[in-house]
Every structure is written in structure tokens, then in C-alpha cells.
Design goal:
about 280 residues, alpha/beta, Rossmann fold, 10 helices, 11 strands, binds nicotinamide-adenine-dinucleotide
Length: about 280
Amino acid sequence: MAKQLLGKEVNASYNERVKEMVSKVVAQGVTPTLGIIRVGEREDDLSYERGATKRCETLGVACEKFVLPEDVSEEELLRTIEEVNQNDKIHGVLLFRPLPKHLNEEKVIQTLDPKKDVDGITDGSLAAVFAGKNLGFPPCTPQGCMEILDHYGYDLTGKKVVVIGRSLVVGKPAAMMALKKNATVTICHTKTKDLAKNCQEADILIVAAGKAGVVDASYVRPGQVVIDVGIHMGDDGKLCGDVKYEEVEPVVEAITPVPGGCGSVTTSVLVGHVAEAAMRTLS
Ligand code: NAD
């Protein structure tokens, strides 16, 4: 039976570090605050917002919401972002995407001040991940993957890490972060030949394909650590990941379950970034 890598165990220690940061900032008379900018009422957004708001409350971080109608004009949304950029009481911003089609998402994202980009979506934040620049914040989900590996004591030095997925939100930054930890990294995607063989060669397999059950028992071997980033609603109405858990778990050394693995660590990292953004304003 594989060791389960549990989000709640990672969060228990990660959140202690966040609480320490929050109390240092509060001692200086500042309340770390997350600004949430949401356009419309998409159920996915509302669900993530509820989770993030609750985690903020638990960790002593305040939230301020900016909710705009689905048909908001681009000018008004840009004005809201500029206001939040200027507002010293707001340290970090969560901007829900995708935005409605009539809005230029790229323009909207790049209007956000990278110093407040706690979700790691601006070019400034990505430059930090890819070129080591001290700007913005890394995207929360791949950082969450690294927090899980760190928490359970997996040293990536010299290890072969295979990432399935090359999105800017998860796959590419996860690969860069593993590289920074001295892993030898392979990025796989829809055009990769013999995906199963590539995956079998991994010591650590990070799966962010965005498709339920892409990885089955034929992709893995004993001794591997599998991080499943995917979240899907299965036909049976239960949440599942990109990995066929029932097949893969008996083979590998360790695995993140879905739910209970990566998802809740992502939320903690977001709140951690708000605390860090507030800390940075003090120095
Ligand atoms: P995406 O659709 O933008 O990217 C998926 C990537 O996987 C693409 O680069 C594609 O080339 C690759 N891919 C897709 N199918 C493949 C296949 N069959 N074989 C090989 N490569 C394949 O998705 P994303 O935004 O990167 O998200 C990935 C997954 O992570 C999704 O399931 C998403 O729901 C989940 N996610 C989870 C969290 C979290 O907090 N746990 C956060 C963000 C995203």
C-alpha cells in the first residue's frame, strides 16, 4: 500500500509558518488583506472563494471582495484593478479567471501590480519563477506540489521528475521549481510519444493533464512518488484526479489522493502569499 501524501498534514505545518508571519505583521499594526475580484457568479469561482475566505479567516488574514456583474465593461474592471493596486490596505489579489469573453484577459491580468499578484498570474510573477527575479509570487498549485514533497522529506537533487502538462498555471512552473531543486526534469504533453515509458522513468511524477484517469497502472512502477494535481467530477458524482488512483496506488511508493491531496495546499499557499506580501510592505 502506498503512503498517502495528505494535504491536511502538509497544511498543519505550512499554516503554522503562515500564522507566525501574520502575527509579525499584525504586531506592526497591519492586517494582511486579500482582495478578491470576481466577475459574475460562476459556481467554480464561488466554491474556491468560499474555501479561500474560510482559510483566510482561520489564519488571521482579512478579505475584501470586489464583485462585478458578468457584463461589466473592460474599463470598469481595469478601474477596479487600478484602485486595488493603489489601496495600501490590500496586500494580495485573487482575480478569478477565465473572464467573460468580451474582456481582454491578458490586458486585465497585466494591469495587476505584480507586488500584489499572490496567485502568480502576471508576467512579473512568471519572470520570478523562470528567471529567478524577485517579483510577484509563484503560482500557488505548483508551489503546493513542492510544499508536499518538502513536507514528506523528498529531496529532488539528482532525481528524475516527470511533469505531465505544460500550462503556465501548473505544468511549466512545476517543472521550473523542480529544476531549481536540482532535479532532472522532463515535461510531457499531448504530443509526447510513449507517455507511459516516460512516466515509468520518473522518480517523481507530477500529473497536471487536466483529464481524468490519464495515468493508469501501465504508467507507473514501484518506488515512485506521484503527485496528482487534477480535479474532476467523476461520472459517479465523486471527485477524482488525473490518476486512476485505485490502479496506481497499490503499485507506487507514495501518492496524493483526490480529494485530500493538492487542492487544499493550493489554498494555504495563496493565503501564505498574502501574509508574505504584507511582510514585504514592512521591509
Ligand atoms: P490545462 O488544460 O491548461 O493544461 C493541461 C496540460 O496537460 C496541457 O499542457 C496538455 O498538453 C497536457 N495534456 C492534456 N492531456 C494530456 C494527455 N492525455 N497526455 C499528455 N499530456 C496531456 O490544465 P491546467 O490548468 O494546467 O490544470 C491541470 C489540472 O490541474 C486540471 O485537472 C485542473 O483542474 C487541476 N488544477 C488543480 C488545482 C489545485 O488546486 N489542485 C489548481 C489548478 C488546476
